[in-house]
Specification:
The chain is α/β, with parallel strands linked by helices. Helix content is 27%, strand content 26%. This is Protein-L-isoaspartate O-methyltransferase.
């Protein structure tokens, strides 16, 4: 039987080339694909598997070694916010893989968290406001809170009440707990497609599920000069970066292909979409 290459892992890009790979398709055809390691990682398997990393600091060092983390700022945040506090009990916290957190939801793989933090880091300065849509177990929201500090505001919105409760419990065990107590970090039960107007406008909006199109309420709540990172698409999805210009217009670029759970209503999610 002829073997086929799974082409959904290959992304052709005009950006900086980090690797040239040669693949064989069927028995007699060859194709040369130029792609960045950073982009290929988004849809390929983990950098490392179960049991090979057993400390959060080692996880961050591996992400630095693979070039996913490129800044000291992101490295320090991910070392401070231990992923082990935010995965379900009994799950291996430091493998590079998404994990089921119940309710047909997942916590993203570490390389995806690192990628999003790198894309957003310049907009996560002290005093700024950040919104995390589909905040899950609270990991990325906690990272945002640490970056914007006590004078800023980090808001997590999640439509599963049980996950909001879990997020709060997780943060209370972490070094970010004082920010939760002081109120600069908060979690709310709500439909993230409508954002969270109370603390808008936001310098950063991150969406942790794939939308068919970018929801207008999120566009409206993004501050001029702000940045949104959101996966867009249904069967085929792309991670998009949207920058809102000072005049209210916006520019969008594609970072990589990804695979996220859909951004949908609570009932649809609980039914398995």
């Amino acid at each position: 039987m002829e073997e086929f290459l799974e082409m959904d892992l290959i992304l052709i890009t005009a950006s900086q080339v980090l690797r040239i790979s040669k693949f064989r398709i069927k028995a007699k055809y060859e194709v040369v694909v130029i792609c960045t390691r950073f982009q290929r990682r988004a849809m390929s398997g983990p950098f490392w598997g179960r049991g090979s990393i057993d400390r959060n600091e080692a996880l961050v060092e591996q992400l630095e070694n693979y070039g996913v983390i490129g800044s000291q700022k992101v490295a320090e945040v991910m070392k401070t916010v231990d992923r082990g506090y935010f995965v379900p009990e009994g799950s291996p916290p430091y493998i590079d893989s998404p994990m089921d957190i119940g309710y047909n939801a997942t916590i993203s793989a570490p390389h995806m968290h690192a990628m999003c933090l790198e894309l957003l880091k310049d907009h996560l300065q002290p005093g700024m406001h950040a919104l995390d849509v589909g905040s899950g177990t609270g990991y990325l929201t906690a990272c945002f809170a640490l970056m914007v500090g006590p004078t800023g505001r980090a808001v997590g919105v999640e439509h599963i009440p049980e996950l909001v409760a879990v997020s709060i419990e997780n943060v209370q065990k972490s070094p970010v707990a004082p920010l939760l107590k002081e109120g600069s970090l908060s979690f709310h039960v709500g439909d993230g497609r409508y954002g969270w107007p109370e603390f808008a406008p936001y310098d950063v909006i991150h969406v942790g599920a794939a939308a068919g199109k970018i929801p207008k309420p999120l566009l409206d709540q993004l501050k001029p000069g702000g940045r949104m990172v959101i996966p867009v698409g249904n069967i085929f999805q792309d991670l998009k970066v949207m920058d809102k210009n000072l005049d209210g217009s916006h520019s969008i670029r594609t970072v990589t292909s990804v695979r996220y759970v859909p951004l949908t209503g609570r009932d649809s999610q609980l039914k398995g979409f």
